[in-house]
UniProtKB/TrEMBL annotation:
Membrane-traversing stretches: 20-44, 56-79, 85-113, 134-157, 188-208, 229-253, 265-285
Organism this protein belongs to: Pygocentrus nattereri (Red-bellied piranha)
Official protein name in the record: G-protein coupled receptors family 1 profile domain-containing protein
Source organism superkingdom: Eukaryota
Pfam families named in the record: 7tm_1
Keywords attached to this entry: Membrane, Transmembrane, Transmembrane helix
Keyword Disulfide bond listed: no
Subcellular location: Membrane
Domain G-protein coupled receptors family 1 profile: 35-283
Length: 318
């Protein structure tokens, strides 16, 4: 399946719209990648963060979100300027984007489970949060994230002629959904993952909120915990909505190209960039230990000796 531009479309207006969208998008993506890179650098510089499951999961979201943003940005620019690329790199980019697309919300669900164990089962947290269990958890996340890309790849190869692999096209994930049954099966996979995440998130957050209210007599501390829960729930809701947006976009894919680009641009900003910007806010800037070290490196280490000693003393405890 290949999108062709109708001759009635005003290409000048299309290029004008894209020329406005692309610079704004590049600024947003550039800021996002800069903040993520600084946080990844902060994570790698301190061993205490590399030994804590919470921060390791946070680092994975930073890596995955950054890779997803780069790949999606490349595809958006190519599609916006109607630039056709070879199908083999197109397939690789689309499969990688689908993998990253699923991996982020699954990692957030894993972070919910980690917080549930830490708050509701504090005595067992150290025994459960081991390097072996972390590796096992990552294999589960990566395995589930690979189901949809592997299915898309096998289904695409089975439904197109081999010569199609050497053609050029406007690269989009929709290219891999040439047959109706492929799109329906992919939707079913997303729905199963969606249901799984909803169940886990609801269970963990209800338990965490009950435990936080029962254990905390400090109203200020309780309020902060509830705000974190609300921010996290909002982020997950936006991330989960990502599974629905492709089926909204595909309705415009065969019609007006400019409308399709506008819809994709809006969904990209609202459901791709915004929830990924919340990760640095929730787990980076609002985390006191991480923020102290982050500020230290963001200021290029321009601290006096007492401030440096204060940083070291605060980041040692896990």
């Amino acid at each position: 399946m290949q999108l062709t531009v109708n001759s009635s479309i005003n290409m000048d207006l299309l290029m004008y719209t894209v020329s406005i969208h692309v610079p704004v998008l590049q600024v947003l993506v550039g800021i996002f990648l800069f903040v993520n890179s600084l946080m990844i650098f902060t994570f790698l510089k301190k061993e205490v963060f590399r030994e804590d499951t919470r921060y390791i999961l946070f680092a994975q979201t930073l890596f995955v979100d950054s890779a997803f943003m780069v790949v999606n940005n490349i595809l958006f620019i190519c599609y916006g300027f109607q630039y056709r690329i070879h199908m083999i790199p197109c397939i690789i980019l689309c499969l990688a984007m689908t993998f990253f697309y699923i991996c982020t919300p699954l990692t957030l669900v894993a972070m919910c489970l980690e917080r549930y164990v830490a708050i509701c089962m504090p005595l067992r947290h150290a025994a459960i949060s081991t390097s072996r269990n972390r590796c096992f958890g990552f294999f589960i996340i990566w395995g589930i994230s690979s189901i949809a890309p592997i299915f898309n790849f096998i289904a695409y190869l089975s439904t197109v002629h081999s010569s199609a692999l050497f053609s050029y096209a406007l690269c989009s994930v929709e290219l891999l959904l040439g047959e109706e049954w492929v799109a329906q099966t992919r939707a079913l996979i997303f729905q199963i993952i969606f249901f799984f995440m909803i169940v886990v998130v609801l269970f963990t957050y209800i338990k965490i909120m009950i435990a936080a209210r029962a254990a905390s007599s400090d109203n200020k501390k309780s309020t902060k915990s509830l705000r974190t829960v609300i921010l996290h729930a909002f982020q997950l809701s936006l991330s989960i909505v990502q599974f629905v947006t492709p089926y909204i976009e595909i309705a415009f894919w065969k019609g007006d190209v400019m409308m399709f680009i506008n819809v994709r641009y809006s969904s990209f900003v609202v459901f791709m960039i915004v929830p990924r910007c919340l990760s640095p806010l929730i787990y980076g800037l609002r985390d006191e230990r991480f923020f102290i070290v982050l500020r230290h490196y963001a200021c290029y280490g321009v601290d006096n000796l007492s401030q440096s000693l204060s940083i070291r003393s605060k980041v040692r405890p896990i």
